[in-house]
Write a structure and sequence with these properties.
Elements lengths: L2 E2 H7 L3 E3 L5 E2 L1 E2 L9 E5 L15 E5 L11 E5 L2 H12 L15 E2 L4 E2 L4 E2 L4 E2 L4 E2 L4 E2 L4 E2 L4 E2 L4 E2 L4 E2 L4 E2 L4 E2 L4 E4 L4 E3 L6 E3 L5 E4 L4 E2 L4 E3 L5 E4 L4 E2 L4 E2 L4 E2 L4 E2 L4 E2 L4 E2 L4 E2 L4 E2 L4 E2 L4 E2 L4 E2 L8 E3 L4 E2 H24 L1
Parallel strand pairs: 4-5, 5-6, 6-7, 8-11, 9-12, 10-13, 11-14, 12-15, 13-16, 14-17, 15-18, 16-19, 17-20, 18-23, 19-24, 20-25, 23-26, 24-27, 25-28, 26-29, 27-30, 28-31, 29-32, 30-33, 31-34, 32-35, 33-36, 34-37, 36-38
Antiparallel strand pairs: 1-3, 2-7, 21-22, 38-39
């Protein structure tokens, strides 16, 4: 689908500076954009690259001073990132879905309750007592085990596993090969000290509405009750969430994070990539953890922490700066000897 710069300005509530009839067929970054592509500038430090960019048009945050130039257009918007999201939605190709209905190779228990308009792809397995709400789409090789529940308009990509008695809310997206409700990782030494005893996990996982869970991510079931994920939370690929965690609303967790057992994460917290959090720690509402932070203690609400072990980010940066000065200080000390 292609759009004109005039149409893009209208859909983004932007101010058009330049021709309104330039045709745009896709979006790209400043350094890669071609003649029929739209780009974006959300920060002043990138504004200088516009002069050498081949794109015909750019979405530009209103605070940034950029002239369109001959034969090109600038669309000034309140938030360039949100404007990009609007345009992407408009030009995106339809999501690939299996053929409507239930594929003949799917294995579905007689006691399963499945809404009439649910789409179930090849080789899916639906267990006893499962309930699947209206509008759901299950791609190939999805397994939903006994008594699990999926709400309305769920989208489950190939190879995902939703284990027994777990509950998924409305409008959730589960990406390929994610596992919801695996056993928690809990062992104790045997009485003779020669082996490990596995602790059973009789709890479940309860996921709220509008949650997205990335490819290959795992959310373990609770030992006694439920591991919970609040409404609107977004979890990236390859994230491990251990048993009995309680994750709040609209939390953002980037790829590769490891979240140990019985952790509480408050509403609106943000975790950068590869963050690790030890068990029984609390992350306050609105807190931010910088990428690769190794969290060993509670993080207060609204604070930004980083480093290993993690601490308030400014203190962590001061320590890094001091450490980098050590080689020169050692040389000075040796000279004094």
């Amino acid at each position: 689908m292609s759009l004109t710069t005039g149409q893009i300005a209208e859909m983004t509530a932007g101010e058009l500076c330049g021709p309104g009839d330039l045709r745009i067929d896709s979006l790209e970054t400043l350094e890669l954009a071609g003649a029929h592509q739209l780009t974006f500038i959300g920060d002043q430090k990138y504004a200088g690259a516009w002069a050498d960019c081949s794109a015909k048009a750019a979405l530009v945050a209103r605070a940034i001073d950029v002239a369109p130039g001959d034969g090109r257009a600038v669309i000034r918007v309140d938030d360039a990132d949100l404007a990009v999201a609007t345009v992407l939605d408009a030009i995106a190709r339809p999501t690939v879905v299996p053929e409507p209905g239930v594929h003949e190779s799917a294995v579905i228990a007689e006691s399963a309750q499945i809404a009439d308009d649910v789409t179930i792809g090849p080789h899916c397995v639906i267990g006893d007592g499962v309930r699947i709400g209206p509008g759901c789409v299950l791609h190939a090789n999805v397994s939903i085990l006994d008594e699990a529940v999926i709400g309305r308009n769920g989208l489950v990509w190939p190879g995902a596993v939703i284990r027994e008695r777990c509950t998924i809310g409305d409008n959730c997206i589960i990406h390929a090969n994610a596992t919801i409700g695996a056993d928690g990782f809990a062992y104790r030494p045997s009485t003779d000290g020669r082996s490990l005893v596995k602790l059973s996990h009789v709890g479940t996982v309860r996921i709220g509405d509008d949650v997205e869970i990335g490819a290959g991510s795992c959310i373990d079931r609770g030992k006694f009750s439920a591991t919970t994920v609040g409404d609107g939370t977004k979890i990236d690929n390859l994230v491990q969430i251990a048993h009995n965690c309680r994750i709040g609303r609209s939390v953002v967790i980037a790829g590769g994070c490891g979240i140990a057992g019985s952790i509480e994460i408050g509403d609106g917290a943000m975790l950068g990539g590869m963050v690790g959090i030890r068990d029984h720690v609390s992350i306050g509402p609105g807190a931010t953890l910088a990428a690769c932070a190794q969290v060993m203690s509670d993080v207060p609400a609204g604070e930004t922490w980083g480093g290993s072990p993690a601490q308030e980010l400014r203190a962590a940066i001061r320590e890094v700066v001091a450490i980098r000065k050590l080689p020169d200080l050692m040389k000075q000390l040796k000279k004094q000897k």
